[in-house]
Structures are given as C-alpha cells and as structure tokens.
Amino acid sequence: MLEIGCGPGVAARAIAERIGDGFILAIDRSEKAIRLAQAGSYNEIAAGRLGFRCVAIEDFVLNTGDAPFDIAFAMRVGALDGRHPEAGQAALKRIKAALKPGGRLFIDGGRPLQEIELGCGLPS
C-alpha cells in the first residue's frame, strides 16, 4: 500500500498495525513530517511493515527492487484534490506507474472518499 502525503504518519501506523504480512510505504514532501512519522513508528518500521520516504508525489518513482502497490491513497493532498491541477496530472502519471495493473487509487479531498480510475487517458 502507498500513502501519499502522510504527514506525521497517523494513518500509516494504523494500517501497519492491521496489514498482516503486507507493507505500507508512506511519502510526504515535508522532511519535518517524515522525521515526525519515523520517530513515532519505531515498532512498525522494525517489524518491516512500514517505511517512509521524503518525496513529492509528482516526483515519486519506485526504487529498484520495489514491488508495485495494490492500493494508493491520499487525504487532502493539494496535487490530487484539485487545488494544483498541473501537479495533479504529473502525480497521477507517477501513481499509475507505481501501481500494479488493476491497482486502485483512493482520494479524500474533503468530500466523500473517491476512487480515481487511472486506466484511461493517462500516459504511462
């Protein structure tokens, strides 16, 4: 699972506690947010269920050896909730590249949670 715009890591930790043998990577463009998230997530990181990376979604790429994700989600991320449309198009391309075929993207922009279809109209 990929969390986009994780802030201090609250949602990522909650998921890591329930993910079984899965893994969640949480990203944020803020170094401060990532430091706070890592500081509060020692057990989940040590168990191999949670990782963090400081990167904006419009610049995100999988590292060599990383498996693509089944699910990505974002809560109130400007590049994905319509506040920054140009960044949003770049972000959607990066997310599509990071998801498995058939992977799913969910965005909460302050309205009800929405699933975003990535199959049509987006270049790889």
Features:
single chain, 124 residues, alpha/beta, Rossmann fold, 6-stranded mixed beta sheet, 6 strands, 27% strand, globular
Q: How would you describe the shape?
A: globular
Helix count equals 4
**Overall structural domain count:** 1
End-to-end separation in angstroms reads 20 Å
What do we call the CATH topology? Answer: Rossmann fold
N-to-C series of helices and strands? EHEHHEEHEE
Structural class, from helix and strand content?
A: alpha/beta
Description:
The chain is of the alpha/beta class and 124 residues long. The protein has one domain: Rossmann fold (3-Layer(aba) Sandwich). The chain is 30% helix and 27% strand. The chain contains four helices and six strands. It has a six-stranded mixed beta sheet with strand order 3-2-1-4-5-6. The longest helix has 14 residues. The mean pLDDT is 91.
